Amino acid sequence: MYPVLSAIGLLAVYALIRIPLNKRRAHDDVQSLPGPASSIASWIWGHELLTFQHAATQMYCVWARSFGGLFKIKGALFHPDIIVATDHAAVHHIFAHSDLYVKSPAFRPPIKNLLGEGLVWSEGEDWHRQRKILSPAFSEGAVKGMTSVIFECAERLETRLTNLILDSKDGASLNIVHYISACTLDIIGAVALSHSFSAQSARTEAHSDAAQISASWADHVNMGLKPISFFVPIIVRAIPAIAKAPLPLMQTQGVCKTIVRRLGQKILEREKVTASVEKSNGDARQEEELPQPKGKDIISILLRSRRLGKDSLSDEQVLDNISTFAMVGHETTAGSLTFTLWELARNPAIQDRLRAEILSCGRDLSYDDIQKLEFLDAVVKEGLRLHPASPQTERLALEDDVIPLSNPVTGIGGAFRIRKGQVIHIPFQAMNTNPQVWGPTAAVFDPSRWLQARDPATFPSGWSGLLTFCDGPRNCIGWRLAVLEFKIILATVVRSIILVDTGVHVEEKISPTLQPVVGDKGGLLPLRLKLV
Ligand code: HEM
């Protein structure tokens, strides 16, 4: 009884302080924005609760159709109204000024626990430096150099699925998420660390690194679907100090981070021993003249750049970035890819057309073949358009600013005055499915739309007119790698395997990336597979 009464008392005190502060802002532009009715908002949890209760960005899609490219919603825990932006000029402006519009500081402690102080976590000067040093590891040439490793992992997936089908009577029914995610984990292990997680090996044991990463991610996904995962970040946003409290929920270290750091540490030590042996053998050459780490993997590229340049990452930053890439680089690609396979299962004619195009190149596909396949390219873009692994983001304005608008808002005009401290939600998925841009079939999986001539002026800024990889200086550093993985895995699977829809109802939820949910279980997308 006492904890409940104490919580109610605390909430009342908080509301008494917060509500008058919000009223002081009553004259700014936010008040003139349209938005959903207050009557459908929860008194304590605002409209934000509705967004959590519905599928992924469903509410934002519905509201954007009704209220246009800039509207407001009631924030939870008496937070001042939140702006939701899908207006092209506004979103472009926000992402172009990444020093002025930052990720919410309240979420940095949990990101630090899960991923470390790498690129996703860093801000300001620290971020600029890290991004500059890390970018060459994701250049076109560097990613092209990863092709053979990606093919090897994709072919292992093809063999694994083929064997399951051969062992079954009338096609294999399975959770495709499990298999795709094991494949992308093997890829990221190989390209980031030259390490084989053997996630796709039949002999992988229950306590292996791969099994531990997979189990902890599954727990994370299913925890994210529970109401507590909605309430905790909102409470942290209201009282940021809670994130530093010694509560297990707040201090959980990412299993992936711990494992990848351990592996990365070994590579760093090996590299230091090599350098010191060369020195003690009387090698009088300068550090930068010594033989460089040879691997094409990301950690070797970083170590090479460290030997050559004065301005480099510390050991800790190298390790934190490798664990960041391992985590955000494998589940994101796996998520969008899984949904694309599901779309192909539900659209057999599209699947047949794709297979015919892939088979026309023969079985030994090269990097150049993959780049030439127009319909494959269209399927990849359509999958990434409808199912962006990271369907929305949040930014906080650090200063007062004026945001340009593509479409003037009634009562405000073509520019919007924003106040320091304003929180802005940007639902990528709502932008990617805006009927004003993509036409009346915006929500339909139709790759052929990418083969028609388009007027670039009607599309938002971003890769191929999509917001899937965000935009501006803080766009996804791994987008080239993600697109190449997507193409190679799709081509390798579809050439041998027919994907069949099971008819099971699958819902899309955010937890923390876009997840297929069946009933109340996340990370589940059943498909039936047959041999071509
Ligand atoms: C389909 C796959 C992927 C999608 C849809 C995706 C999407 C995104 C999005 C939307 C952001 C911006 C997030 C925000 O600011 O709120 C982002 C950032 C980032 N992504 Fe990806 N990503 C994918 C794959 C990858 C891969 C393969 C890697 C690396 C191996 C990667 C590494 C990163 C990093 C490090 C950032 C932070 C960049 C910065 O702040 O400078 N991502 N990604």
Automatic annotation (TrEMBL):
Pathway: Secondary metabolite biosynthesis; terpenoid biosynthesis
InterPro entries linked to this entry: Cyt_P450, Cyt_P450_E_grp-I, Cyt_P450_sf, Cytochrome_P450_monoxygenase
Subcellular location: Membrane
Record keywords, A-Z: Heme, Iron, Membrane, Metal-binding, Monooxygenase, Oxidoreductase, Transmembrane, Transmembrane helix
Gene3D superfamilies: Cytochrome P450 (1.10.630.10)
Co-factor requirement: heme
Source superkingdom: Eukaryota
Molecular function GO terms recorded: heme binding; iron ion binding; monooxygenase activity; oxidoreductase activity, acting on paired donors, with incorporation or reduction of molecular oxygen
Keyword Ubl conjugation: no
Residue positions binding heme: C476
One Pfam family per UniProt: p450
GO cellular component terms attached to this protein's record: membrane
Family recorded in the similarity comment: Belongs to the cytochrome P450 family.
Protein name as it appears in the record: Cytochrome P450
Organism encoding this protein: Mycena rosella
